[in-house]
């Protein structure tokens, strides 16, 4: 593997003060009339209220949405302007598919570590319910041509070339532009390649629901979530689900894979399309102290990776498998040093293929450049308060959800044991991308 | 906003009609706006012969508040258009029933010319054990007198009594603060009430009144909407940094209140065993101190007792009463100094209400615990008091059936329901440093509701 330099001593550390999100809602339900801007503004407002940031000029707010209207070119800045923060708070949009939220956090924490800013909010929002709908490519060209035409005849002419099919709207999809395959179909190939069993996937889904439900009941989200539009809990959550119920669902991905592959991915062990938004407050220690705000955790370091899925060399969602060994090596850490694994559950099998790859000597040597198997993850440390299978996954909002949960988990663990606690965050993304980070108790 | 009937009898044709028909005509009550004069006109200060010195002290204090203060009504006798803003009747020194006649009649002679939203305030001493029978009779007499006068007043005018206890002097901070509160538009819906005021420090200086809660940190439970939200806004207006608390499901509305008052939101169920610890930790951790706790969180689960189930009974007791006891116990156990606690009781807790045996138990319980906690808080230089709202125009009372609601509204001397801000003003007063001499009391904000005391 490419040797990474040990993390250059940053001038100082960046800390996680706390987070806020709105409950996540399945597409087409409670937030059917909520825009990305409304949802992100709500997430910001809850964060402002929790930490008394009214009128505060923050260093910056960064975030984004994956499914974004072109009119939302300044989505985050517009959200800031609609919030109780000072209008003098700068903002910018980030987009890295499902890793948007985490990438935004990496960007702002690096600025804090460099001393360019003292405080920041990172987050994201996504709505499938209010997604932009485009016209077909041929209709779009005709409209543009007509717009530039000077005579009536010239204005009408482009439309005479259209066929009825060109009038159908082009809905957003999660298909990869280079392969035409949906994310689920891509993951089905990876799942089959690693031979991940249906039961193992259902078990990951079951744990996600049970863990998230337990965390809600214990009040874990009392200071992490603010209700929105009458929704007070993630409505995808099925606390009463069972292996039996999950096992009855029909597979939906990988149905056309050649033998001997058996379709295993169902609506139960795949993340549903979801609406929601999240935001996390970061600061330097000095800023937090000056504002009498206790900090939960340190945002230690991050690593992103990308894989060549286009030519089938690697699975679409396997980039974090490459990023994590580099990240841990740079920080002198091994898997055993991690107390909490916050692995985004795009699909239950994403988590399981990640683990299988790390346990595979041959793969780790040839693909990751390691001396042998990377190691085994203690499953009891995986997504202990649930993850995307239960909460849902509004693409850009997932990073913020995970960071805030991880920060609270390590803070509580450190308070309990008196020793530092660490969490590893891993988010896979479309385009063969992945972002990972280490969070450590402050 | 006044209710529709009150608006109708105060505007245009419907006003004339109501007048002709002799319909009850509730007034549009004057409420506090920053910068507006304290009273609607000149203030007459009268006293019996034995109370002249105290009346002088009060008159002097009123002059310091930029009021037009008169010690006699004579100069205005022939002026038909003259209107008094308020009458302060000082009877602190009265020793015999026969001695108050002159002062009482002098006050009475002004009432025909009392301006709309005028004020009558009596200042006297509470009957106390050890009083000679004649003295006790005189002092007790003032109470019945005041309550009757309040019922005679019209056009939004109110009558209230400041009753000095434990040797409190008229020039003390709390005696004057109580007089000022009753004179002001802040007590718009407080009528016919007798407020006992104990000893307190020296009178506050004039600059104090702008922002009496400046530098204070207040926690308000149940602050997401209605009366709780009004309390948060009023305390913030008076200078306090406010921590707004409500159950997590109410978080969206709570966020809006927190951001409006520039405070912080704490999503917390007050019935949680560690609620007191969380409140103290948040207030001191984020804002450096805790000065005021307003126990406003409350729920209704109405049922006739014959149909009551455990869930309805227990949840009301847990939220409305047990949570307050537990939080107070924690805060006092933690030794928080100078804490001003104010609880929401209810006229239901005083008079009882059909279908509300659980609610009335909890609110009556609040009154009992307020009295019992008073000496414990006093040991830490704090106070605990309760406010008992009557019919207040909120989402909760809007759900009452029309006819019942109309009757409930008109069953008071002011012939209308109060606004959430009326309750909030009373709480802001009781929570203020100048009210340090008021402890263990229940102040009704009910427009002198005909039900109860």
TrEMBL record, chain A:
GO cellular component: cytosol
Active site: 98, 393, 428
Pfam families: Thiolase_C (PF02803), Thiolase_N (PF00108)
Domain of life: Bacteria
Domain spans labelled Thiolase N-terminal: 15-285
EC number: 2.3.1.9
Top-level EC class as recorded in UniProt: transferase
Domain Thiolase C-terminal: 294-440
Signal peptide (residue range): none
Keywords for this protein: Acyltransferase, Transferase
GO MF, any single term: acetyl-CoA C-acetyltransferase activity
Family: Belongs to the thiolase-like superfamily. Thiolase family.
NCBIfam families per UniProt: AcCoA-C-Actrans (TIGR01930), PRK09268.1 (NF006740)
Protein name, per record: Acetyl-CoA C-acetyltransferase
Species annotation: Antribacter soli
Automatic annotation (TrEMBL), chain B:
Any GO molecular function: 3-oxoacyl-[acyl-carrier-protein] reductase (NADPH) activity
EC number per UniProt: 1.1.1.100
Keywords of this entry: Oxidoreductase
Keyword hit for Thylakoid: no
Limits of the Ketoreductase domain: 216-395
UniProt xrefs under PANTHER family: 3-OXOACYL-[ACYL-CARRIER-PROTEIN] REDUCTASE [NADH], SHORT-CHAIN DEHYDROGENASES/REDUCTASES FAMILY MEMBER
Protein name as annotated: 3-oxoacyl-ACP reductase
Species of provenance: Antribacter soli
